[in-house]
Amino acid sequence: MPDPTVNRRPGRGPRAAEAIFDTTLRHLAERGYARLTIEAVAQESGVNKTTIYRWWPSKPALLRAALIHARVLDIDIPDTGSLRGDLIALTEQITRLLTDGRTEPVARAMTAGTGLPDDELAALTRDFFADRFSREQPVFIRAAARGELPADTDPMLLLDLIAGAVWMRVLLRREPVPPDFARDVVDAVLPR
Amino acid sequence: MPDPTVNRRPGRGPRAAEAIFDTTLRHLAERGYARLTIEAVAQESGVNKTTIYRWWPSKPALLRAALIHARVLDIDIPDTGSLRGDLIALTEQITRLLTDGRTEPVARAMTAGTGLPDDELAALTRDFFADRFSREQPVFIRAAARGELPADTDPMLLLDLIAGAVWMRVLLRREPVPPDFARDVVDAVLPR
């Protein structure tokens, strides 16, 4: 159990959590999972390793928390007044995460999972994307309330198409992202 | 220059090319790029390493040839008589490549590129997907000839959406692929 006398943000970890998460993701990107160690993360984050172990008792637990809670991987859930506007804003944020020099290597390392036992990698990526998906729900709830979402629309399929297109274009095809890419992607998948 | 007296399939490499490609991809998946060696590939494929060097003078050249020419990563370009039918067949093949136990680890290793200098990885993935894209062109040429393809349709965007959705669902989100996934993906992106 965490020590209740430690000053902290509830549920998010110790005060140094942000520094710990940033170091964890940077080490993951630079060294790969196999050479990621709680000791090195603690040292570089300026905390005692027992502080990390108190909150996250294992390397997978620490990485999971960093992927889900690090501000650098955060997305703002848009509320532009239309489903189209919200999805374009989401697509632009996904594009930024997959092209920014700080976050692109993290996305690549997470996909690869090199050095992770396959079941741990599966659990990590599943948890990460399930958390994203649940955070994106308000976009679809508001769209349904506005009557913009046909009853047979599958939000997960829409998001797989949108996020997948960015992933393909940027990380796999390695082609440049045209200025109107977000708009074109969204217009291709929204019911007309 | 390759020795012209060696019996070979023109342009594809020596007679043992298929075994060499298979071993290359398996070693990539099992060991990662950094520990992939031409020596080990030669030994396990039953050829002399000079045979490999004669055709592919470097590790990136060998891996590039394996990714582009290995039968295990091949796709049949469908010709079902409709754009919808062709795209569903393509989507099913992409799903198979990303779920089959022999090819899924290759796809993952290629995405990750762990151990590859970033410019070599970029060149490899760019070449691989450019080759795929050029092979898929007949689907769109035939669709245009049948009048099925609106003039403003971007085939690369369609393929990014389709392949990206499979990639997201299978390798990233780690959710099961429903039986009608290929059909649903294609119906979501085809102009109605």
From TrEMBL, chains A, B:
Presence of the UniProt keyword Cytoplasm in the record: no
Annotated ranges, domain HTH tetR-type: 14-74
MF term (GO), any: DNA-binding transcription factor activity
Annotated InterPro entries: Homeodomain-like_sf (IPR009057), HTH-type_TetR-like_transc_reg (IPR050109), HTH_TetR (IPR001647), Tet_transcr_reg_TetR-rel_C_sf (IPR036271), TetR_C (IPR011075)
Top-level taxon of origin: Bacteria
SUPFAM superfamilies according to UniProt: Homeodomain-like, Tetracyclin repressor-like, C-terminal domain
Segments of the chain annotated as binding DNA: 37-56
Record key words, sorted: DNA-binding, Transcription, Transcription regulation
PANTHER family: HTH-TYPE TRANSCRIPTIONAL REGULATOR RUTR (PTHR30055), TETR-FAMILY TRANSCRIPTIONAL REGULATOR (PTHR30055:SF148)
The protein's name in its UniProt record: Transcriptional regulator, TetR family
Organism of this sequence: Streptomyces atratus
